[in-house]
């Protein structure tokens, strides 16, 4: 007898007409997978038939990627004709009789959705007595609103069965099929009653929460709709009025504001705020009334206010008119864990939807089972293909998801966190394949991912990639990396900077490439403001100290010094002050000039600012440097370590701006300083040019306007009110200046380096503290020590202090600070007095010479110095005139030839005709210097004539002192003078003097001249001398000198013999080389440009003797 599957027959007449004669095989259909009852008895009891099996056991793949167990009527064998129909009520009775309760529930649900309620099923499921347990009374259930009408508590109990089954499963995220349910566990025995009770109570709790959420949602919706309708009316009537805040928005913002106040310590404000909103409970977010989770907080909202979240896509399957939100189950995989009450709703809805889809022969497949939150749906219409066949068919689509990249491509991120995870996985594979020149383009990606990635290990890997992104980063690339590190530090805070960024720096502190170590050094400074203060003053400081002491690259140490300066600007541990001082001294002693410049530009200003805060600038820092300078002085005049003196003095010089700022800030008038609109601007030349912006006093004070006001009050206080109660300025006047002046008096005046260093220091000190301070505080202290006055100028005993370095330092460091007429007159008068006093007292002229050398280096003072010398030229004392003549020698080298011709040479010629022979002799060195430096032929001829008169005039033949001075001058200027002057004037006259010295009667004078001749010939032997001059004058003069030394100084005689032999060999070799050179030149000209080669050879043979003067060492 043919069997009929009653569940393949539609309850609608239309479907019956479409399929009037549908027969089904009695065997189990592969697509349905359920056996039917035995033929002839379609409604036999379970005892008589085979054990009941689920009506449909095949698992359909749900839209959310999970297998949902769905039950469909099994194929039943029914005797009778194919046109026989089975009533719906009969099917329901059989299902209830066979205890297919779940299937009956699904059947009842579909009937409700179709609008055909069956009384039998309605009465059965609405009667609680049908589901009472023997072991106890079932808990009461409130009715909930279902899609088709009121459902009794039986529906919840059945869901409990499913939930209990899932609670004992592996919790892999998929809903178990009804096949997998172990109904024996829900038998009437009491062994498992406690577990069931727990599951029921849990479900009741979740269901109560759902009810509360539903009521709150209804309340929220109603409240918002009322407010919206009223606001829209108001806005339509007055469009210019901004949309007012809604009541629910106000309550939500109130809650967040109160939370912010509490978290940030504004407790009193929070209490006041709560009192003003007494109708709201600020301890419970649910009191707000919004059916949404609590936002993260005001700070998070502020930081992300510019980030627009992606809009949710509303997807609808138009082919079956089903909302995608129902198919996806509201993203069960992600949302069910957040909202416990949602899983029950979704499971029921998904089960109903799957039954509906099966009823219409639709099937859905997830193309990506690896991530259940990312869904891709493919719809197959009205085809009876097995899932295995469909899977095999789709396998011919060339998709690759088994590789790493394939898995990343097939897994599309749908949230910020998943994007960060994806970037964290992909960036390590992307970076090695990007060109080195373009890798800085990856810095934003790496940093954003490292900031937001949830896994510490991945963040560490990303930061490691950042610091190793470029093998040898250039300056621009390092700047990009540093900018990113600072942005990272601002975003994540000090704790993560310490834990994540600093280890990357530590790893590369000894990297083989200096560019990488440079990046580490710069990073330490850039990250200093964002580090915990303990780490800043310990670990980072130690890292930089190690790099400063060990790194061999100048640019790395320069960056270390700058970073140390930044650290000094943020450090607040006073115990680290001695370490900072030692680091300053260590870096000042660095051999690299760029490192030392960085110390003065960054480190010292920052360290002095810290010292000022600690009160140590004038109490400890400056005195400690002065003490170290004083310790250098007792080593002796010639044993002074000028390098160390330069280190300490340059540090003192860099401390002048912060010292003056301290004086201004601690002045009695500071409280009266107020910036006004008519505050005058500061003169550009008021202060020396700062070495860096950090040494600009306006920067130290705060602004140029405030500094201008303070300077006005400062000058007024010094000029009219005095320094009473001004402790910082009194320390400068009473302690700093006297100690400096004492040190100046102890240094060696012949050390031009020391004189220059102290002169620059006093110049900057006086210019910084101002003209009034210089005239009233500095100059009087120097004048008291020098004791220059009219009554002691002519004192024959002289003044010992005038021979010290105090004179040039006062003249060049103090008197030159200001260049007005009265200042220039004071400088001229001081130099004239010093020259007169030293000359009349027969004291050494070293201090005056040092003053002329220091001042002569600046062309602006040449006229002034010539005025001083002219005072000496016309002085009544021959001693003063002699001094003036000797000073011209120092001045000629730096003066331009116009002044030499107009001012120097006339003065020297005037002195050369002086009645006193000593004055005339004193002019010879100056004449020789002119021959060495000037190039004007006329000047050279005038000087040559004057020197010739000294040598050839009979009145000078017996002037031993004059001959000594001329020979000494020739030996000094001869190697650097014009070759013609040397060959035609110097060497012939030396020959004559050597020849005349052979017959000198006085042995002492003879040996004096011989010694000077030996020095002169030794210097001139290094020059290129023509063969004619060598044979006619140089060698004969050496032989004459040899004759004197043979008798007077045998030790010199040996050297002279070797010199004569060398000169003779040179003459012989030059003759041979000339012959060979002519042949070689002729051969080289063959086939080439004769003119070019000839000029080249001639250029090699006519090398100036002035260029060779310093090449060879003097032989002794």
From TrEMBL:
<feature type="coiled-coil region">
    <location>
        <begin position="198"/>
        <end position="225"/>
    </location>
</feature>
<feature type="region of interest" description="Disordered">
    <location>
        <begin position="1"/>
        <end position="78"/>
    </location>
</feature>
<feature type="repeat" description="HEAT">
    <location>
        <begin position="904"/>
        <end position="942"/>
    </location>
</feature>
<keyword id="KW-0445">Lipid transport</keyword>
<feature type="compositionally biased region" description="Polar residues">
    <location>
        <begin position="1"/>
        <end position="10"/>
    </location>
</feature>
<keyword id="KW-0813">Transport</keyword>
<keyword id="KW-0175">Coiled coil</keyword>
<dbReference type="InterPro" id="IPR011989">
    <property type="entry name" value="ARM-like"/>
</dbReference>
<dbReference type="InterPro" id="IPR040362">
    <property type="entry name" value="RELCH"/>
</dbReference>
<keyword id="KW-0967">Endosome</keyword>
<keyword id="KW-0677">Repeat</keyword>
<dbReference type="InterPro" id="IPR016024">
    <property type="entry name" value="ARM-type_fold"/>
</dbReference>
<feature type="region of interest" description="Disordered">
    <location>
        <begin position="127"/>
        <end position="147"/>
    </location>
</feature>
<protein>
    <recommendedName>
        <fullName>LisH domain and HEAT repeat-containing protein KIAA1468</fullName>
    </recommendedName>
</protein>
<dbReference type="GO" id="GO:0005802">
    <property type="term" value="C:trans-Golgi network"/>
</dbReference>
<dbReference type="GO" id="GO:0032367">
    <property type="term" value="P:intracellular cholesterol transport"/>
</dbReference>
<keyword id="KW-0333">Golgi apparatus</keyword>
<dbReference type="InterPro" id="IPR021133">
    <property type="entry name" value="HEAT_type_2"/>
</dbReference>
<dbReference type="InterPro" id="IPR006594">
    <property type="entry name" value="LisH"/>
</dbReference>
<dbReference type="GO" id="GO:0055037">
    <property type="term" value="C:recycling endosome"/>
</dbReference>
<feature type="compositionally biased region" description="Polar residues">
    <location>
        <begin position="55"/>
        <end position="64"/>
    </location>
</feature>
């Amino acid at each position: 007898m043919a069997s009929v599957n009653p569940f393949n027959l539609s309850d609608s007449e239309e479907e019956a007409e479409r399929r009037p004669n549908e027969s089904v095989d009695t065997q189990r259909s592969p697509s349905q997978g359920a056996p039917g009852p035995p033929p002839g008895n379609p409604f036999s009891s379970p005892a008589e038939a085979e054990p009941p099996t689920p009506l449909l056991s095949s698992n359909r793949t749900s839209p959310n990627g999970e297998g949902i167990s769905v039950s469909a009527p099994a194929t039943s064998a029914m005797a009778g004709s194919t046109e026989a129909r089975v009533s719906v009520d009969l099917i329901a009775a059989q299902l209830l009789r066979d205890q297919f309760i779940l299937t009956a529930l699904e059947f009842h649900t579909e009937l409700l959705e179709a609008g055909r309620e069956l009384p039998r099923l309605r009465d059965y499921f609405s009667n609680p007595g049908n589901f009472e347990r023997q072991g106890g009374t079932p808990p009461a259930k409130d009715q909930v609103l279902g899609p088709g009408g009121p459902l009794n508590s039986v529906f919840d109990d059945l869901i409990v069965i499913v939930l209990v089954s899932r609670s004992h499963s592996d919790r892999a995220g998929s809903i178990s099929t009804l096949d997998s349910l172990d109904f024996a566990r829900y038998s009437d025995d009491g062994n498992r009653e406690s577990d069931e009770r727990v599951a029921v109570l849990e479900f009741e709790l979740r269901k109560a929460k759902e009810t509360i959420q539903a009521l709150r949602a209804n309340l929220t919706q109603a409240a918002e709709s009322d407010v919206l309708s009223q606001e829209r009316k108001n806005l339509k009537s007055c469009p210019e009025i901004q949309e007012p805040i809604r009541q629910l928005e106000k309550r939500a913002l109130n809650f967040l504001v109160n939370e912010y106040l509490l978290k940030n310590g504004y407790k009193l404000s929070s209490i006041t705020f709560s009192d003003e909103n007494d109708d709201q409970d600020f301890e419970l977010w649910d009191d707000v009334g919004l059916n949404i989770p609590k936002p993260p907080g005001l700070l998070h909202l502020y930081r992300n206010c510019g980030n627009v979240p992606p809009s949710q896509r509303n997807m609808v399957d138009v082919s079956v008119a089903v909302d995608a939100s129902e198919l996806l189950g509201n993203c069960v995989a992600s949302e069910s864990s957040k909202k416990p009450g949602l899983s029950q709703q979704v499971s029921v809805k998904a089960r109903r939807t799957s039954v509906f889809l099966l009823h219409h022969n639709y099937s859905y497949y997830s193309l990506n089972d690896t991530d259940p939150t990312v869904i891709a749906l493919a719809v197959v219409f009205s085809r009876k293909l097995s899932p295995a066949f469909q899977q095999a068919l789709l396998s011919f689509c060339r998709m690759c998801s088994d590789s790493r990249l394939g898995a990343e491509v097939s897994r599309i991120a749908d949230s910020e966190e998943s994007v960060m995870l994806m970037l964290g996985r992909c960036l390590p594979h992307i970076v090695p394949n990007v060109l080195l020149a373009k890798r800085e383009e990856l810095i934003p990606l790496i940093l954003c991912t490292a900031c937001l990635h949830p896994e510490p290990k991945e963040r560490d890997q990303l930061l490691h990639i950042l610091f190793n992104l470029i093998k040898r980063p250039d300056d621009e690339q390092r700047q990009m990396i540093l900018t990113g590190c600072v942005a990272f530090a601002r975003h994540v805070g000090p704790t993560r900077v310490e834990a994540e960024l600093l280890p990357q720096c530590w790893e590369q502190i000894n990297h083989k490439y200096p560019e990488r170590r440079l990046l580490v050094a710069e990073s330490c400074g850039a990250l200093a403001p964002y580090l915990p203060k303990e780490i800043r003053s310990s670990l980072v400081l130690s890292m930089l100290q190690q790099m400063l002491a060990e790194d061999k690259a100048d640019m790395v140490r320069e960056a270390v010094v700058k970073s140390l300066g930044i650290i000094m600007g943020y450090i607040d541990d006073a115990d680290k002050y001695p370490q900072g001082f030692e680091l300053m001294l260590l870096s000042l002693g660095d051999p690299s000039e760029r490192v030392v410049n960085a110390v003065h530009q960054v480190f010292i200003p920052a360290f002095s600012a810290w010292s000022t805060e600690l009160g140590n600038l004038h109490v400890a820092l400056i005195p400690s440097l002065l003490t170290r300078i004083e310790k250098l002085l007792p080593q002796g005049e010639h044993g002074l370590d000028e390098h160390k003196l330069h280190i300490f003095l340059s540090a003192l010089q860099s401390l002048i701006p912060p010292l003056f700022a301290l004086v201004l800030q601690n002045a009695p008038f500071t409280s009266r300083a107020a910036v006004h609109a008519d505050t005058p601007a500061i003169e550009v030349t008021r202060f020396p040019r700062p070495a860096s912006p950090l040494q600009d006093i306006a920067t130290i004070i705060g602004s140029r306007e405030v500094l201008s006001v303070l300077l006005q009050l400062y000058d007024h206080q010094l000029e009219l009110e005095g320094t009473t109660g001004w402790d910082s300025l009194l320390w400068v006047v009473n302690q700093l200046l006297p100690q400096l002046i004492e040190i100046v008096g102890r240094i060696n005046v012949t050390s031009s380096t020391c004189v220059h260093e102290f002169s620059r220091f006093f110049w900057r000190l006086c210019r910084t503290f101002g003209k009034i301070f210089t005239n009233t505080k500095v100059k009087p202290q120097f004048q008291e020590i020098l004791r220059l006055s009219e009554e002691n100028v002519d004192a024959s005993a002289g003044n010992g202090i005038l021979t010290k370095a105090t004179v040039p330092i006062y003249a060049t460091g103090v008197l030159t600070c200001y260049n007005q007429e009265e200042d220039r007159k004071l400088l001229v008068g001081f130099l004239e007095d010093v020259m007169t006093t030293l000359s009349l007292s027969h004291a050494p002229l070293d201090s005056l010479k040092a003053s002329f050398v220091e001042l002569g280096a600046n062309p602006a003072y040449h006229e002034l110095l010539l005025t001083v010398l002219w005072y000496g030229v016309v002085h009544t004392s021959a001693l003063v005139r002699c001094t003036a003549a000797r000073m011209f020698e120092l001045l000629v080298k730096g003066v331009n030839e116009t002044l030499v011709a107009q001012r120097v040479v006339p003065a020297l010629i005037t002195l050369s005709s002086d009645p006193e022979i000593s004055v005339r002799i004193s002019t010879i060195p100056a004449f020789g210097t002119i021959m060495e430096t000037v190039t004007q032929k006329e000047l050279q001829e005038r000087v040559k004539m004057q020197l010739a008169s000294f040598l050839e005039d009979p009145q000078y033949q017996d002037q031993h002192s004059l001959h000594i001075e001329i020979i000494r001058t020739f030996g000094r200027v001869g190697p650097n003078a014009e070759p013609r002057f040397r060959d035609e004037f110097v060497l012939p006259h030396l020959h004559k003097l050597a020849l005349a010295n052979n017959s000198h009667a006085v042995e002492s004078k003879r040996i004096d001249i011989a010694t000077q001749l030996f020095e002169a010939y030794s210097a001139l032997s290094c020059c290129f001398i023509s063969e004619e001059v060598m044979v006619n004058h140089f060698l004969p003069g050496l032989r004459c000198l040899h004759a004197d030394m043979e008798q007077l100084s045998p030790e010199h005689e040996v050297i002279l013999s070797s010199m004569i032999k060398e000169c003779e060999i040179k003459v012989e070799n030059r003759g041979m080389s000339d012959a060979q050179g002519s042949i070689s030149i002729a051969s080289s000209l063959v086939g080439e440009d004769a003119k070019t080669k000839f000029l080249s050879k001639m250029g090699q043979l006519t090398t100036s003797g002035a260029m060779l003067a310093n090449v060879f060492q003097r032989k002794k």
